[in-house]
Amino acid sequence: MNEFFPYRHGQLHAEATSLLDVAAAVGTPFYLYSAAALTARYHSFVEAFQPIQPMVCYAVKANSNLAVLRLFAGLGAGADVVSEGELHRALAAGIPPDRVIFSGVGKGRAELMTALEAGIHQINVESVPELRRLSEIAAAQGAAAKVAIRVNPDVDALTHAKIATGKKENKFGIDLDEALAAYRLADALPGIEPVGVAMHIGSQAGSLQPFAEAFERLAGFIREVRQAGLKVRRVDLGGGLSIRYRDETPTDPAEYGALVNRIFGGLDLSMACEPGRVLVGPAGLLVARVEYIKHGASRRIVIVDAAMNDLIRPALYEAWHEIVPVRQPGSDVVVSAADVVGPVCETGDTFATGRELPPLEEGELVAFGNAGAYGAVMSSTYNTRPLVPEVLVSGDRYAVIRARPTYAEMLALDTVPEWLPPPRDR
Fold first, then answer.
1. Distance between CA atoms of 59 and 64, rounded to whole angstroms?
2. Please, how many CA atoms are within 13 Å of residue 206, restricted to the half-sphere of its CB?
3. Less Cβ crowding at N or C end of the chain, within 10 Å?
4. Cα separation of 329 and 289, whole Å?
């Protein structure tokens, strides 16, 4: 874990709050976030860019809880959104519209209209058809849409294939060799005001080298656009900084900031960046209860009450999350291999295989580390399992910031047509 999730008096805490106390009040499983960790990580990121002061637009897709967004809004953050729903969340949390960037490859007409009506900072356009659609909508409204052309630099972020976005074969952005023509088109179309360029090469990038390569290409493109007589006032560098889940070397924000300063510092640009995982990932846990210990032929199987619908990253990305007991193990404890699995009837509902863990008992609590990003936000109600609560901790205080729905509330979302026949009597 980290300094915000210490063991105190033999129990795992979030700041000064006992996880056992939270579990007793809200039940398991539940997500928990540390306000102090969120704040510290935000400040660390911002300070890394001095003397540059980019607009920090938190990537809402990493964790979209309104309380988390409000916390970041209070620190001065903007928002990077990729859907109309996320836009509504950002605005509801108090993030000013002129600090919101709308990204994404498939923005619908209603989404573009909502963004224009809200008066957001800019729309990152990712294709020529999107550019033409936005022109049509904006011209009809008598508006001028501030646009950044998202370019695809054809750079491998050295990350998992499912979260790489900067290679030519990925669906994101406009190929670098076609981007100047797109920028010219943006300048000519009615209702469009091209203000800059944008780029995002992927999430959990393995090192600074891909950023350096992509940023050099982007800086060269900016010079090319200006040489063509077109204005470029803004650059959006995206996000993608990595955190440590297991044995990765996390991206150092200070080194990243120095790289940005070196490449873009002399280009007279206003800058934006879109951190997500790096701000919220290490600030969150998923806490679950051990239901059963099953001893198989080769190893023990620890069955917990959390499942793949609650934390899908291990099933979707083969992701590794630290798993620790909430009750602190003794210094002389003997660990042994265990599979940690959930109750969903799929073999894919597996959190860890052959993980070295201390002895565990039925009813004991375990915590999954680095679960603040792409955890609750990607959860589902598969198997009609309720979405788990989310809890925010500040010192010795905590609040439920999303409640667990009742089964009645879940069933009320469905409607049975009145013309269906009644159930048969047997």
1. 9
2. 9
3. C
4. 16
For the question of whether the overall pTM of this predicted structure is more than 0.85, the answer is yes
Q: Which residues, 6+ apart, have CB-to-CB distance to 43 below 8 Å? A: 75
Q: Tell me how many degrees the CA angle 313-210-158 measures, rounded to the nearest 5.
A: 35
Check if the beta carbon of residue 391 is closer than 8 Å to that of residue 400: yes
- Number of other CB atoms surrounding residue 193 within 10 Å: 15
pLDDT digits (tens, 9 = 90+) for 31-74: 999 999 999 999 999 999 888 889 999 999 999 999 999 999 99
| E strand segments, 232-349 | 234-236, 270-273, 284-295, 300-304, 323-325, 336-341
For 354, residues 6+ apart whose C-beta sits below 8 A from its C-beta are 299, 337, 338, 339
Q: At what angle do helices 253-264 and 208-227 cross, to 10 degrees?
A: 20
Mind telling me the catalytic residues?
345
Q: Quote the tokens at residue 318.
A: 């083969």
The structural domains of the chain, ordered by start, are 7-32+286-411 (2.40.37.10), 34-280 (3.20.20.10)
Selection from 72, 83, 10 nearest residue 37 by Cα: 72
Write the DSSP symbol of residue 405.
Answer: P
DSSP state of 242: -
Per-position b or e across 240-257, b if 16+ CB within 10 A of its CB: bbbbebeeeeebebeebb
pLDDT tens-digit series, residues 250-299: 888 899 999 999 999 899 999 999 999 999 999 999 999 999 999 977 78
Q: Report how far residue 198's alpha carbon sits from residue 213's, in angstroms, rounded to the nearest whole number.
A: 15
Confidence of residue 163 (pLDDT cuts 50, 70, 90): very low
Q: Which helix (H) or strand (E) holds 162?
A: none
